Every structure is written in C-alpha cells, then in structure tokens.
Prior knowledge:
By secondary structure, the chain is an alpha+beta fold. The protein is built from 5 helices and 4 strands; from the N terminus they run E-E-E-H-H-H-E-H-H. It has helices at residues 32-44, 54-68, 79-84, 96-114, 117-127, and strands spanning 5-6, 17-22, 25-30, 89-90. The strands form 2 sheets. Strands 1-4 form a two-stranded antiparallel ribbon.
Amino acid sequence: MSLNWSVLKIEDYEELMLKGTDKDGEYEHVNPVTDGIVWMTLIVDIGRITDENWKEFYLRVKMYEALKGRYFYDHEVTPELIQRHIGLVTNVSTSKTNWNKKVRLWMREKISTTGDKWSYEKTKSKQS
C-alpha cells in the first residue's frame, strides 16, 4: 500500500516547500524535514497531526527515539516542529493497539541487545 499524504491543510504550507529548476524544468517538493514527518506517521501510527493530537504525536516520536535512536541525523524533533505540521494528513490508520505492540517489541529488542539478558530470557520463556 502506498503512503498518500497532503500538506495543503498546514498553515502557510508554502513555506515548507522547496522550489527550483533542474534539467527537467521547474519542481516543487516538501523540504526534507517535512518529508521525514510524513514518514514518521507510519512509525507512530498517527495518520494526521491535529490541534488535539500533536502532543501525543510528539510523545510517540520521543518514545521511538528513546528506544531506537534519533530519527533525524541532523535535526531535533521539538514540540514546535510537530506543531508547525498541524494539518498534515496521510492515509495511515491511527492505532493505539499497533503502537503499543511496536513499543513492546522495541523494548524487547533493546533489552535483549543492551540490557539484562537473564531477565529477558526468563520473561521470553514464560510467554511461550
């Protein structure tokens, strides 16, 4: 399934666009940070950023980063960055259940590679 998205409902979305000319003519693309936020919707299982959910979106990004490492190599995810993208819409289904499953998996991965192996193996065998 393809990822479909729109920035048209973001206030002053034009400021998030890169415009230029190349060998094929004029082009217009979202900037790399906005593109990253679009793809982040898949990771955090929230398909649109709204006034009501931007804090949850930000929290999930920070949880992801705590368990998997920084999302952007050279850019910090801040509350202001997420607020700036209120109005972003994608076709990602918003799911707390899927999110919770991902977090549990990431925590198990982190514990099994960096944490207390004995505790992890003991927990794993009890689940079987």
